[in-house]
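Ticket #4471: complex job returned nothing on first submit. Input attached below:
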Amino acid sequence: MSQATATSGILADENRDKREQIIELLKKAYWMEIETVMSYLANSVNPDGVRAQEIIESLKKDIQEELGHAQQFGERIKELYGVVPGSLDFAAEQDYLQPPEHQTDIVHVIRGVIAAETGAIEHYTRIIEETDDVDPVTQDMVIAILHDEQGHKRLFEGFLREYEAEGLA
Amino acid sequence: MSQATATSGILADENRDKREQIIELLKKAYWMEIETVMSYLANSVNPDGVRAQEIIESLKKDIQEELGHAQQFGERIKELYGVVPGSLDFAAEQDYLQPPEHQTDIVHVIRGVIAAETGAIEHYTRIIEETDDVDPVTQDMVIAILHDEQGHKRLFEGFLREYEAEGLA
Amino acid sequence: MSQATATSGILADENRDKREQIIELLKKAYWMEIETVMSYLANSVNPDGVRAQEIIESLKKDIQEELGHAQQFGERIKELYGVVPGSLDFAAEQDYLQPPEHQTDIVHVIRGVIAAETGAIEHYTRIIEETDDVDPVTQDMVIAILHDEQGHKRLFEGFLREYEAEGLA
Amino acid sequence: MSQATATSGILADENRDKREQIIELLKKAYWMEIETVMSYLANSVNPDGVRAQEIIESLKKDIQEELGHAQQFGERIKELYGVVPGSLDFAAEQDYLQPPEHQTDIVHVIRGVIAAETGAIEHYTRIIEETDDVDPVTQDMVIAILHDEQGHKRLFEGFLREYEAEGLA
Amino acid sequence: MSQATATSGILADENRDKREQIIELLKKAYWMEIETVMSYLANSVNPDGVRAQEIIESLKKDIQEELGHAQQFGERIKELYGVVPGSLDFAAEQDYLQPPEHQTDIVHVIRGVIAAETGAIEHYTRIIEETDDVDPVTQDMVIAILHDEQGHKRLFEGFLREYEAEGLA
Amino acid sequence: MSQATATSGILADENRDKREQIIELLKKAYWMEIETVMSYLANSVNPDGVRAQEIIESLKKDIQEELGHAQQFGERIKELYGVVPGSLDFAAEQDYLQPPEHQTDIVHVIRGVIAAETGAIEHYTRIIEETDDVDPVTQDMVIAILHDEQGHKRLFEGFLREYEAEGLA
Amino acid sequence: MSQATATSGILADENRDKREQIIELLKKAYWMEIETVMSYLANSVNPDGVRAQEIIESLKKDIQEELGHAQQFGERIKELYGVVPGSLDFAAEQDYLQPPEHQTDIVHVIRGVIAAETGAIEHYTRIIEETDDVDPVTQDMVIAILHDEQGHKRLFEGFLREYEAEGLA
Amino acid sequence: MSQATATSGILADENRDKREQIIELLKKAYWMEIETVMSYLANSVNPDGVRAQEIIESLKKDIQEELGHAQQFGERIKELYGVVPGSLDFAAEQDYLQPPEHQTDIVHVIRGVIAAETGAIEHYTRIIEETDDVDPVTQDMVIAILHDEQGHKRLFEGFLREYEAEGLA
Amino acid sequence: MSQATATSGILADENRDKREQIIELLKKAYWMEIETVMSYLANSVNPDGVRAQEIIESLKKDIQEELGHAQQFGERIKELYGVVPGSLDFAAEQDYLQPPEHQTDIVHVIRGVIAAETGAIEHYTRIIEETDDVDPVTQDMVIAILHDEQGHKRLFEGFLREYEAEGLA
Amino acid sequence: MSQATATSGILADENRDKREQIIELLKKAYWMEIETVMSYLANSVNPDGVRAQEIIESLKKDIQEELGHAQQFGERIKELYGVVPGSLDFAAEQDYLQPPEHQTDIVHVIRGVIAAETGAIEHYTRIIEETDDVDPVTQDMVIAILHDEQGHKRLFEGFLREYEAEGLA
Amino acid sequence: MSQATATSGILADENRDKREQIIELLKKAYWMEIETVMSYLANSVNPDGVRAQEIIESLKKDIQEELGHAQQFGERIKELYGVVPGSLDFAAEQDYLQPPEHQTDIVHVIRGVIAAETGAIEHYTRIIEETDDVDPVTQDMVIAILHDEQGHKRLFEGFLREYEAEGLA
Amino acid sequence: MSQATATSGILADENRDKREQIIELLKKAYWMEIETVMSYLANSVNPDGVRAQEIIESLKKDIQEELGHAQQFGERIKELYGVVPGSLDFAAEQDYLQPPEHQTDIVHVIRGVIAAETGAIEHYTRIIEETDDVDPVTQDMVIAILHDEQGHKRLFEGFLREYEAEGLA
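Support reply: We reran it on our side without changes. The output follows.
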C-alpha cells in the first residue's frame, strides 16, 4: 500500500469516518464558493449607475478571493483523501442573487450578497465546530475564511442601512 | 431616453436584432468558459502522479485565463445592451471532464480537455462568422480567444500522442 | 529616392490616393482625442461631491488612455507618410463638455461624455469601413480603440440611467 | 561641548530663543496631526453606506499621510534641539470629529474634517510667517504640508456642497 | 430590519451580551495600540547615540505594525456591531514610556517598551480566554497579534540583559 | 454656507481679489502647458533622422511632464475656488512650434522649443513675484515648475549651439 | 531581574515547567527540519531523468520552506527562554532519505519523502495536543506548519501511486 | 486517432490543403525573422561612431522583437500541424545586410534594414491575403507583426532622409 | 591614428597576431551559439507529449542564455578590433539536432543536445588554453560560459540515463 | 545669437553679474560635496568594530546622497551658463576627515563628520541669503539640501553625546 | 553508453582520477558550508543585546549566502559525475561555534565565526591550487566563494578588535 | 592577537610583503577611479549639442560603474589589512579630461576618455600580472574591471573614428 501508516491525527486510518464527514462538509463549502464566483461575476458586470461602481469594484475584488477559497477547499478535500466533484454535481441555490429586472436596482444585489454571506457563515461555523479537536488544520483554515465572509457581510449591511436611511430599501 | 442615438455600427437602433443574436451566442460562450473554470479547477487538484504535475500546472494557469475569457464575454454582453445571466441558468454539459474513477487516469483528463477545447473552437468559429462585417469589435475579441483555445487543444493533443505512442491511450 | 519601392499593400506608390484619404480621417480622429484630453482634464478637476469622485477617477484614468490613442493616431499618420498637424490647426467642437454653471451638476458632465464617445464611435466606425481590405493595420488598430470607446459610452449611459431612475436627469 | 559652534542660521547659539519659539509651534502641529490620525482611523472604520466608501478610502489614505506629517514635525523638533513630547502631554481637541450617533450620518464626518483642516491651515500659516527669513528649512517643509491640507479641505468642501445641493446638509 | 437573521455564531442575536463584552475588551486593546504608536513615535526620534540607532530602527518598524494592530482591532469592533471610539475617549497610561531626562538614557526606553508589551500580553491573553469557543475569529486574530508582542518583549529583554551584564542597568 | 470661515492665508474671504488675480495667471499657465503638450506631441512624431531621435525622446518624456504641470495648475485653480476652463477657451499661440516644411529641419524644432520655454519662464517668474508673501503654496509649486522649464531651455540652447558651430543654424 | 513579572500565559513564572517541556518538543522539531533541509538539498541535485525534474523542482522549493520552519522553531524556542542547540547536538535519523544506489531510482526518493513527512506529522500533532490551552501561540504556529507537511505528504503519495499503477513501485 | 474531429475552421480535416499552403508561407516568414536576428545582432555590435549608437540601440531592441516574431511563427506552424524546420534548411538571403567595409558606413546599414523590412512587408501582406476568411487567427497575428515592420521601415527611411539631406547618401 | 598606443596586454600592437588568432576562435564560437539558438528554437516548439514539456521549458530558457553567449562573443570580437560576420557566412553543422521523424521521439532531441554541448565544451576548452596568460579577459568570460554548457550537458545526460534505464534509448 | 532674449529673472542678460556670483558659490558647494564623497567612501570602509557598522551604513547611504547633491550643483551651474570645473581645480580641505591612526577610533570619524556638515551648513545658509529674491530656483534647491545636512549633523551630534556620556569622547 | 565521449577537459575519461580527487575536496567543502548554516542559524537567534543585533543581522544574511555556496558545491559535484552525500555522512566539527553559556557573550560568537572562516579559507585555497590548469570552472567558482569568506573574516576580525580595544576580549 | 593565524594564501603572515605591494597598486587604482568619477561628472554636464547627449548618457552611466570600482578597490585594500587613503592624498593627473574651451568640442572629451581608459588598462594589466598565483581573488576582481575598461575604450575609439571619417578630428 502506498501510504505510510499514520497513527495519529485526522489522516490516521482510524479516523476515516470522521474524515469522510468533514469531506462532505467541505464539498458543500466548495460549491457555495463556486456559485458565489458565478453570482459575483454577473453582478460585477450588470449593474448601472455611479453608486453601483462601488459595489462593482467590491465584488470584482471578491471574485478572486472567493475563487481562492474554492481552491483552498478543493485542496483540503484532496489532502483528506477525497475527490473534488465535477461540474455535473453543481446545483444552483442562490435564487436571491439572480440579475434583477432593472439593472439600477442595487438594493436587490445588496440583499442578495447579505443572504449569500449569511449562508456561508452558518455553514462555516458548523465546520469549525465539527473539526474541533479532531482536525485543527481544517479548522484553522476555515476560521480565516469565516473572517473574510463576516467582513463582507458587515460591509453590505452598512450599504443597506444607507438605503434604508434614505427610505429606498 | 438616456442613449444618444447612434446611427451606425452594431450599437445603432436598426441593428437591434443582430445584436440580440450575437448576445445569445456570447451567453453560450460565457457558460462554456464558466464550466471550463469548474472543470479545470477540479482537474488541477484531483490527479495523482509525477506526470500529472505538468497537466496540473497547465490547467492551473488556464483557470485564470478562462475566467478572464468569461469576464470578457460578460462585459461584451453588457456593452451590447444585454444582461449577464445568473447561476440558475447554468446547465452542465462537459460530461467528458468529470473526475475519473482512478486519479492516476491522466488520459481521461487529456481527452476531456481536447473535447472541451474542440467544442469551444467550433462555437467561437461560428461567432467570428456571424459578426463578420457587422461587429468587428466582438469579432476581434473572439479571434484572440480562439487563438488561446487552439493553442491549448494542440498542446493536449501532443500529450495524447505520447500516451498513444507508449500504447497507454 | 529614399524609399525602397513597395509593390503591394497600403504603402505602395499606387495607393497614394487611398493613403491620403485615410490620413485625413486619422487627423480628424487625432484632434477628437486631443480635445477629449482637454475636456476630461477639466472635468476631472472641477466637479464637487462624493458621487463626483467616481466620475473623476474614471476620467483621470481615461486621460492617459485617450492621450495614448492620440499618440497611436499620430504615429500611424507618420507611417502613412503624412504629417501630424500643429496646434494652430486645432478647432474646439465639444461644446457639450464645457464646465457647467454649478460644479455639482454631474448630469451635465455625464451627458457630455456620452455625446463625445458617440461622435468618436461614429467616426471610427467609418475609418474601419474605409480601410477594409486596403489597410488592415490601421483597421486593426482602430477596432481596438473603438472597443475602448464603446466601453466608456456604455459605462456613462449606466451612470445616466441611475440619475434618470432617481428623477434627477 | 559636543556641538561644533554654528555661527549662522537657525542652529546658531544666538538664535536659541527663536528656536524654542519654533519648537513650541511644531509641538502643537505634532499633536494636531496625531489627533487627526486617531480621528481619521475611527472615521475610516465606523461609517456605513455606499457613499461612505468614498470617504473611507479617502481617509484611509490620509492616515498614512498625516502620520508622515507627524513624523516630519517630530524629526524637525529633534533637529532644532527639542524633545518630542510623550503621550501624557496629549489633550484631545477635535470634538467635532467624534463618532456621530448614527453611522450613516456622513455629513457629520465631512463637517468634522473641514473643521480639522481649517484649524491646521490657520496654524501652519502662522508657522510659515514666524519662520520667514530665520528658518527657511522649517518654512519650506511646512509649505509643502500646508498644500496637502488645503487640498483635503477643498475636497471635503466639495463633498459638503453636494449634500447641500441635495438639501441634506 | 437590515440584517439577515444569523442563527449561530457570535453574530447571532442571542449572543449580543457576549459580543458587547468582547467589544469592551477590544476597545481597550485598541487604545493600548494607539498609545503605543504615540510612544514609539516619540522614542524613535528622541534618543541619541550609536547604540540607540538599533532601538530607533526597531521602533520605527513597529510603529506601522502597531498601527496595523489598531486597525485590526477597530475593524473587528465594527464587525461585531460596535463603534470605534473617538479621540476624546483617549486616556494616556504609559507613564513609563515618556521621554527621559537625558536622551542618551536608552535603558529608560528599553524598560518602558518591556512594560508596555507586558501589559499588552496580559490583556490579549485574557481576550483569548474570553473568546474561547464563542468567537474563534477574534481569538485567532488576537493569537497572531500576541505572537508579535511576545517577540518584541523578548527582544527588548535581551537588550536589557546586555546593559545589566555591563552594569549599566 | 459650506465653507468654514478661514481667517488667515490666501483662502481667507478678505483675500478674494488677490485670489482671483492669481487664478487668472494660473489659467494662462494652464493653457501654455496644454498647448505645449500638443506641440511636443506633434514634434515627437514628425521629425526624420538619426539626430532627431535624441530630440524625439527628449520631447516624449516632456509630454508627460508638461501634462503633469497642467494638472498641477488645474488643481491649484480648483483649490483657490476657481474653475478650470473648457476647450472652447483654448487659443493657439505657439506659431513657432508648427510642423516645418521639411521633417528633417530639426533647427526649426529646436528654436521653437526655446521660444516656448522662454515664454513660460517669463510668465512663471511673474507668478512667483505676484504670490510672494500672499500665497506661498502656489509660489513653491511654481518655483519647482520653473526649474524644469529652465533646464529644458538650457538643454535646447545647447542643441542649437552645436548646429551653430557646424554652420547649420 | 530583567523580566517584568508576567502573571498569566505561557511566559509566566509559574509555567516554567510546561515551558521547558514545550522547548524540548520544539528542539526535536527544529532538528527534524534541519535534517530535512540536508536531505532535500542532496535529493534536489542527485537524481537523473526527465521525470526527476518535477521532484527536483518540488524539493528545491521545499528547501526554503523547511529552512523557514526551522527558523520559526528556533525563534519560538528563544521566545520561551530556551536556547537553540548547536551543530554538535545534531544526530541524523533519516536513513530512508540517503542517496540511492542508482540516481534514476526516483521511487526511493519518493518513499523517503513520505516517511520524513509522516514522522513530522506525528510529532507536530503531538505538539498541538501538548500546547492546547496553555500556549496558543505555539499551537497556532505549528498548525500552519502541519498544514504544509500534510500537503507535501499527499503530493508525494500521489507520485507513488503513479509508479505503483505502472508497476514500478 | 488522437485528434477530436474538428468540423469547421482551419483545423478541420477538409482544410488540410489550405493549411499546408499557409504552413509553407509561415516557414518562409520564420526564416526571414531568423536571418534578421542574425543580421541585427552583427549590426548592433559592429558600427562605430556617436550617430551609430542610435542605430545600435534601435537594433538591439529589435533583436528581441524579431526573435519573438520567429517564436510566434514557429508556434503557429505547430498549431496548424506543421513542423518547425531545423538549421540545415536555412539559406541566407540578406546580402544587403552583411558588414560593410568600413564600420563607420552607417548608410549601408540603414539601406540594408529598409530592404529587409520591405521584403518582410511584401511577404506578410501576402499571408494576410491568403488567410483572409479561412484562418482569421493567423491573419490577426500577422497584421500585428506587419504593424511592427512598417514602423521599423518608416523609422529607418527617416534616418536615410537625414543623410540624403546632408548629401551623405 | 585614432587609438592611443597600448603598450601592454592583448590590445597592444605587438599582439596583433595573437589577437587575430583569438578572433577566429571567437567567430567559430559565435556561430556555434547562433546555430544552437536555431536548433533550440525548433526543438522547443516541435516535440509532443507530457514528458517533452520538461525538455521544452529547459530549451526555452536556454534560447535566451545561448543568445546572450552569442552577444558576449560578438562584443568581445569587436573589442579585439575584429568584425562580427554576417549571415552569408553561416554554415549549419548540427545535423544531429534536426527535427526527428516523429515529434514524440524525445530521445533524438536529448542525444542532439548532448552532442551540441559536447562540441561546445571541446571548443571552449581550447579557447581557454589559447588565451592563457595572454588574454585573461577573454579567458575569464569563456570559463563562465563553459560552466553553463557543462551544466546543460550533465542535465541532458541524466535525461538520457532515465530513458536507457527504461530501455527506451 | 543662440539664446532667446530673456527679459526677467536670473537668466536675463542684465543679471549676468549676479549670476556669476552665484556660480562661484555653487562651485565651492560642488567641491565640498565631491570631497565629502571621497571622505565618506574611505570612512565607510576603514573603521573596525560592531558599533562602527552603524556609522558605516549611515555613511554608505550618504555617499549616494552627497553625489546626488554634487550633480544638482553641477547641473545648476550649467543652467546659469557656467562650466563645471575639472579635477585639476580640486583642493582638499577636510583634514579632520582623514583616516585616524587606529581604525577603532570612531570618535575621530564622528567629529570629522560634524565638522564637515557644519561647514556645509554655513556655506549653504549663505547661498540661501545671496539668492533671496533674485534666484528662487537655486534658493529652493539649496534649502532642500540644507535640510539633509542639518539632519546628518544632528544625527552625528547624537552619536557623539553617547560617547561623551560614556566618558569616551 | 549514455555520455558522448569528451576528449579534452576535466570531463574527459582520462581525467577520471583527478575528477574524483576534486570531488572529495568538494564534498568536504559542502559539509563545511552545511555546518556553517546550522551554526549561523543558532547564532542568529540566541544572542541577547543591542550590539548583538548587528551580528545577528550579519549572520542572517550569511545563512542564505552559505546555503547558496553549499548548493553550488553540490551541483559541481554532480557535474563532475559525483554524488552529493546524505545526512548520515555529516559529522560536526565546529566546536567553537556552539552556543555559549551566557547569551550576552558576543565575543564567543565572534571568535567562532573567525575560526570557521579561517578553516574555510584554508580549504578553498587548497582547492584553487589543486584545480589549477586542470579544472578552471571549479577554480573560478571557488575563487568567488573564497572572496566572500575573506570578506566575512575581515569583518568579524574588525568586530573583535573593538572588543579588544575596550578590554573586553 | 585578534587574527586567527592563517597559514596559507595571501592573508598568511609570511605573505605580508607581497600584500603590501598589492595594496600600493590597489591604492593607485583607487585614485584613478576616483578622479575618473570627477572627470566624468563634469563631462556629463558641460557638453552642448545633440550628439553630445549620447556621450553624456554614456558617461552618466559610467559614473556609477566607476564609483563601484572604487568601492571594490577600497574594500579589497581593507581585506588585505590596508587603509583606504583620505582626500589629502589625492593628486589630479587627468589633465586631458579638463573642460575644453568650447562646450561643443566633443572630440576633446572623447580623446580624454580614451586616454584615461588606456592608462587604467595598463595599470590593471600590471596588477593582474603581479597577483598571478599569489592572490587569485584580487586577480579575478581586477580582470572583471579590466573588461569594463576595455569595453569603454573601444566604444570611444569608435566615436573618434566617426569624427575622423568626417574630417572633424
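Residues 50-79 of chain D form the longest helix (30 residues). Closing as resolved unless it happens again.
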